[in-house]
């Protein structure tokens, strides 16, 4: 099935390009989101055709776990492996230094564990995700344990951030993460030092993890549409 919407087309092409980087015998971190959904689908296709053999996936969310089962990608856990060969994951923003904001799907905590462990971390995005400076478009997702939501909200305001509790869609009340926590989407006027901001946010008691990923991505594949045709380039 080929997408017709240009953004979907870019996601599909870049998701497929990343799936082609996976070699037989690999332990693969399976990212979360609409772009890596295509990667997981193509990994399943490659396994079915016999072109790819003996891979196991480590899911970064319930979403990637469900998709892997649907497309026939065998799964394992971090308790059963001593390394990850390659992780493929999406992003909400990518800056020129390959720093990322992730967590549009509230999966950034598990993603950070898996993506940082991988020997090679491949990011897959459509061209609309490229920014000069992190925080230009997307707020920073911060996962917070529910009992600490008020003090964490206040602490983030003290830092100059504008936090907003993420609300569910087709679910009354706040989004609950795969770990049972809340998410604050935090806007900052300008993120000048993402390395420092990542640490500062994680130092607030009650914060589990935030969506700033620095010094982590090895390869960023960007899907674009040129003259009506999807192309993939490396950042
Ligand atoms: O929590 C979700 C993730 O960080 C996603 O990888 C990110 O939001 C990008 O998702 P998509 O590929 O749907 O744009």
Automatic annotation (TrEMBL):
Key words, A-Z: Isomerase
Any single biological process term in GO: pentose-phosphate shunt, non-oxidative branch
GO MF annotation list: ribose-5-phosphate isomerase activity
Signal peptide as annotated in the record: none
Sites where the protein binds substrate: 32-35, 89-92, 102-105, 129
Active site: residue positions: 111
Family matches, as Gene3D superfamilies: 3.30.70.260, 3.40.50.1360
Catalytic activity: aldehydo-D-ribose 5-phosphate = D-ribulose 5-phosphate
Pathway the protein takes part in: Carbohydrate degradation; pentose phosphate pathway; D-ribose 5-phosphate from D-ribulose 5-phosphate (non-oxidative stage): step 1/1
Pfam family, one: Rib_5-P_isom_A
GO CC field: cytosol
InterPro entries registered for this protein in UniProt: NagB/RpiA_transferase-like, Ribose5P_isomerase_typA_subgr, Ribose5P_isomerase_type_A
Enzyme Commission identifier(s): 5.3.1.6
Subunit (UniProt): Homodimer.
Function statement: Catalyzes the reversible conversion of ribose-5-phosphate to ribulose 5-phosphate.
Family: Belongs to the ribose 5-phosphate isomerase family.
Protein name: Ribose-5-phosphate isomerase A
Organism from which the protein derives: Nostoc piscinale CENA21
Gene: rpiA
């Amino acid at each position: 099935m080929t997408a017709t919407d240009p953004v979907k087309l870019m996601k599909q092409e870049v998701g497929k390009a990343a799936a082609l980087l996976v070699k037989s015998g690999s332990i693969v971190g399976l990212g979360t989101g609409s772009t890596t959904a295509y990667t997981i689908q193509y990994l399943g296709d490659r396994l079915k055709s016999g072109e790819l053999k003996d891979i196991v996936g480590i899911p970064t969310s319930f979403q990637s776990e469900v998709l892997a089962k649907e497309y026939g990608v065998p799964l394992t856990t971090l308790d059963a492996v001593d390394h990850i060969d390659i992780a493929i994951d999406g992003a909400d923003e990518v800056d020129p230094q390959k720093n990322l904001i992730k967590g549009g799907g509230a999966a950034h905590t598990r993603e950070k564990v898996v993506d940082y462990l991988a020997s090679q971390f491949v990011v897959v995005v459509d061209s609309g995700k490229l920014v000069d400076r992190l925080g230009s478009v997307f707020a920073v997702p911060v996962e917070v344990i529910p009992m600490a939501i008020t003090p964490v909200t206040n602490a983030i305001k003290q830092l100059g951030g504008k936090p907003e509790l993420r609300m569910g869609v087709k679910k009354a009340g706040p989004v609950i993460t795969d770990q049972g926590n809340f998410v604050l989407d935090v806007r900052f006027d300008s993120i000048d030092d993402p390395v420092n901001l990542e640490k500062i946010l994680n130092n607030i008691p009650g914060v589990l993890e935030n969506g700033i990923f620095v010094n982590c991505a090895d390869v960023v594949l960007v899907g674009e549409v040129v003259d009506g045709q999807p192309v993939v380039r490396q950042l």
